[in-house]
Each structure stands twice: as C-alpha cells, then as structure tokens.
Amino acid sequence: MGYELRVVRESPLAFAELAKAIAPAGFELRGSEEIVAGHGGGRHTVARWQGQVVGEPGSDWQVAQLLRLSAALGARLVGEDGEVYAVRDGVIEVLSGGTAMEIGKFDEIIDAGPAAWTP
Fold first, then answer.
1. What pLDDT shows up at residue 116?
2. How many other CB atoms are found less than 10 A from the CB of residue 114?
3. Rounded mean pLDDT of 27-54?
4. Contact yes or no for 84/95 (Cβ under 8 A)
5. Measured between alpha carbons, how far is 90 from 22 in angstroms, rounded to an integer?
6. What are phi and psi of 33, to 5 degrees?
7. Which domain of life is it from (predicted)?
8. In degrees, to the nearest 5, what angle opens at C-alpha 116 toward C-alphas 31 and 90?
9. Mean predicted lDDT score pLDDT of the chain
10. Residue from 58, 91, 54, 60 nearest 75 by CA
C-alpha cells in the first residue's frame, strides 16, 4: 500500500453525493468503489471510495486529478502526515508546517498524463 491522500470535507460525504458530483467534473465510477478519469483514450484510476475518497497517487497527474475531484466535492486534499495539497495561481503546491513546496503547473501536469513516477 502506498502513501494515501484523502479528500476531506467539513461535513461527511455520502456515496450518493459522490456519485452525483463526479460526472459533471469528468470522473466516472467503475464498479462501486473505483473513481477513474480519462486521458489519451484510456481510463485511469484516481481514487477509491472507502467510506471516504482515498487515493494512492503514483504520478503528479493523479495528484492533480485528486485536486480536481476535491474541488468538485467542495473538499480539501490532505496527506497522511497532515500536509495539504492545493492549487494557487495555477501551480500545485504542498503546504506542510507553514512551508509551501511547488509540484508543478496544474495544466501542464494534466496535459502530460498519468506517467508513473520513477524511483
């Protein structure tokens, strides 16, 4: 199991609300738990429904998609260690302990697609 990012809201998210909100934002449900987004003619897993929305990104594209999904659900994207992922001025950044680290330009990451991180 990889590093988890969670979509967190002030009010709990019901599955029916998730199902209703994701389609207009360009996401689909595969089965009853997998949330996917398209790129390059394929469908790629972004997150899973586990009583909450949880992602284990393997690429910056998946992080960007999780941010899109969070915005569609009126939520924030939070890492296991409490860091918060956000888009500011078109740039994805991670906020932790009062420090912001840039990941990259949101639009460029979305366009690049789900190429996996390399060790």
1. 72
2. 21
3. 92
4. yes
5. 21
6. -140, -20
7. Bacteria
8. 90
9. 92
10. 54
CB of 47 closer than 8 Å to CB of 53: yes
Tokens of 58: 């393997």
Closest CA to 55 of 68, 41, 42: 68
- DSSP string covering the chain: ----EEEE-SSPPPHHHHHHHHGGGTEEEETTTEEEEEETTEEEEEEEESSSEEE--SSHHHHHHHHHHHHHTT-EEEETTS-EEEEETTEEEEEETTEEEEEEEHHHHHHH--PPP--
52: exposed, middle or buried (Cβ count in 10 Å: 0-12, 13-18, 19+) = middle
Q: Is the pTM of this model over 0.85?
A: yes
Asked if the model's pLDDT at residue 115 lies above 90, the reply is no
